[in-house]
Model the fold of this input.
Amino acid sequence: MKIEREIRNDHIARIEGKAGIIVEIGDEIRARINVTEGPRFFEVITKGKHYDEAAAICSRICSFCSIPHKLTPIEAIENALNIEVSEQIKMLRQVLYFGNMVESHALHLYLFVLPDYLGYPDAFSMAEKYPEIMKHGLKLKNFGAMVQEILGGREIHPENAIVGGFGKLPEQKKMKKIYDMAKEAINSAIATVDFFTEYEYPHYVNLARNHLSIKPYEGYGVYGNEIISSDGFSFGIEKYKENIVEEVVPYSFAKRGKYNNEPFMVGALSRLVNNAKLLDGKAKELLSSYSNFLKEDNCFANNFAQAIELVYFIERIAEMAERARIGKQEAIEPEERNGRGYAVTEAPRGLLIYEVDVEDGIVKYMNVITPTAMFLPMMEIDALNMAKGMWEDGYKDVDLIGNKVEMTVRAYDPCISCSVHVIKL
Amino acid sequence: MRMKIGIHGLTSCYGCQLKMACIEEILEVAKNFEIVYWNMASSKGEIEKVDIAFVEGSVVTERDEEELKLIRENADALVAVGSCAIHGGVQGMIFGEDYEEIFREVYGDSLIDYEAKIGEPLRKYVEVDYCLPGCPPEEHEILYYLATFGIGSYPEEKDYPVCAECRRQGYPCILIEKGMPCLGPVTVAGCNAKCPGFNVACIGCRGPVPHGTAWFDSLARTFKEKGMSKEYIKRRMEIFGKQYEKLDEMIEKVFENED
Done:
């Protein structure tokens, strides 16, 4: 093919990790996402480690979602070793997980996405003109960080969350602090929804797609053991390999997921498409007044979905923190030393799957499938359709097209470090 | 004139950069510097002359290596940030193993257009002026480094272990009293002994104490006395210390009369 124009960015800014995009325009138009971040072989480096250590290593897969990458392997290990933690631990883990959601969504929306909408290269220059908007972002981010610090021990790589429970439980007064700050943060979350309903989605990326998410154990939660698809099908987590297949392409260190041999989407939008009926409180109200923004065929709706989730998760954190009565409890030591376990949770960017084999307390096999690896093929199609639609519509300014293509990629909130931790199927 | 800085990420979890972005008063702090390059946070900027370059991550791909060399050429001072940049990181744990085999185990025989290798610290490729340890570093540490550079001075790296901070905090010793595999005695301080503080054994995430003073041998002896096996001790110490020069030798010494 003779290439007439090429749009190329080897290192997309304002995403987590290193990926590039190339759009080639000629007789036909092609797009591909190059994942150039180096492989880190987590399946290999966790092998032979004690399960406690393996879980701590896994959190290093990604900093933005280090809580999911700690709590999900813990869940898989507990499933393997038949550990049933108390309701108190389950609740505190949810609070911790939701705290990560809030921080991750806030960082994504305010640090990575908003500068595009307002026409700035970054949040720093944007903040000079729009200090009030940035204040909301910082408030949300700081709230999420505080929750993770109190429960996880720190906001990145939470060593306090361990197999069997927590190293140390939070003091009761800290739960009060979480509650008070949640009450303050909620208005910023609502303001975020208002902001993202001021923009229309580009129609070039409209395309029917399957959305995968978990069926939560309770509420619009992040824990479950069943995966549901918007096509009406569902499967238990232990059947994940039969339903989600990964492939290797020459231009990516990240493997790429297919469901029924088709690209699919996971993440905030997918959760909302599949589970909106499980929302309650203010988030439910907001969604019903802005229901026309929940467009399941357009990836830009993911930003709106994240904003709605901010409201939900903060309200839930406040509710659980108010209800919590911290009772003394040591982490449970497993009686069993062997087993195979599975876990799936909803990380900020979507489904996160762990499988682990433990023999005599040592990890013999570990497999991880991350959300970014799952949605990469779908993201590539949307990026292509954006470029193609604009070009065919008469836009010839490649910088402008390039910018819109990057916005399409950013809408997914890709986490490249996650995607290249590398999995084996 | 404001000091020019660049913030860069090689192969890593991006946690050190994220920690920098998450500084509570980041907007105020950022005003004191001219941030010439920070790809994670800004779509403007090229790698160009700066006073200080902060680099997280280890060198895993050829592109990492090229980028690092370019950063070095353009920086008056280069700061290695975090365990990946200083010690190779958890991905450096496969150091010394057959890379081809590991690659095949994961990707099969599929061909990938880019070259990759085992993660190694920055100092294997370029001169490093300062180390800012952590996994990730604490906010107060990042601010200390930025502030000292900002006033035209330079930061002093801590040269004592987490164990010292733990004593100062007055926590009970989980290694001696409970027999937990705590790596606090060999791990560089700065975290204020967070993990021992909540009853979790230090996993050594901040990396070994500098200047060759991480006495893995004494600690291995104590672990051995507590009933831990050689294999377990070695594997635990390797998580963040695999590329510490004398690690193998020190562990071997403790067990030499037994095999």
